[in-house]
Amino acid sequence: MVKNIKKQFITFTEYVWEIFLNGLFAILPITLTIALFGFSLRMLKSWLQPIYQLEPVSLQKIPYSEVALVIGAIFLVGVILRFFILRSIIHGLEHLLGKLPLIRPIYTGIKQLVHAFSMQDKVSFQTVVLIEFPRSGVYSLGFMTSEVSHVIAPETNQKWFNVFIPTTPNPTTGFFIMAPEQSIRTIDLTRQEAMALIISGGIIQPERFVGQRKPH
């Protein structure tokens, strides 16, 4: 009798715990999303504090007015650049930065990296590949960027390609390697799908592959 009561109590406890976990995992993604969004907004607000102090008193009464102001300013610059009004000024500033010894390599590298990850870029990081890295038998997702010049290629009897392998969860850092053509395997993933996989550590799978059966 006592054993049955104890068994029923354990079963009931497990049932309640299962219900609790189901509820927790149901609200956890929403909660974490809201928390992350709030954290990002607070961080952005702290970065824009100097702009907030320069705003008129009437605008300071509006919550997050500095964020809206910066977003509007960025949008305005985009509209102006769209019509080629400020493009010559931007090019002139870039030319000036390109002449400064210490700033030039940093600015050029950041600009190329941002451009490669932007939606406007149609060339860089377009080919998603699988490559054995960091050791044989272990594969990493990477992006083929260009063919290695024969002048710096490790061997001249075959083609070598430059591959960028992003890190998780920050894809703006990673590893640059030169790999022979036969060691690189192209994969049916878009750049956005590959980035989602990398940033999430493999949690976010491409929706078009979910539920597909493994070919025999």
Description:
This protein is of the alpha+beta class and 216 residues long. It has a domain at 127-205: SH3 type barrels (Roll), CATH 2.30.30. The protein has seven helices and five strands. It has helices at 2-47, 49-54, 57-60, 65-82, 87-97, 103-117, 191-199, and strands at 127-132, 139-147, 160-166, 174-180, 184-186. Strands 4-3-2-1-5 form a five-stranded antiparallel sheet, with helices on one face. Strand 3 and strand 4 form a beta hairpin. The longest helix has 46 residues, at 2-47. The model has no long low-confidence stretch (mean pLDDT 79).
Coarse shape: flat
| Spatial extent as radius of gyration | 26 Å
CATH class group of the domain at 127-205: Mainly Beta
Number of helices: 7
Strands in their spatial order, largest beta sheet: 4-3-2-1-5
Through-space gap between termini: 53 Å
Strand content: 5-15%
Query: What is the second-level CATH architecture of the domain at 127-205?
Result: Roll
Structural class: alpha+beta
Strands, count: 5
How helical, in percent, are the residues? 40-55%
Mind describing the biggest β-sheet?
5 strands, antiparallel
Q: Quote the CATH topology of the domain at 127-205.
A: SH3 type barrels
The oligomeric state is single chain
Helix and strand element order: HHHHHHEEEEEH
* Low-confidence spans: none
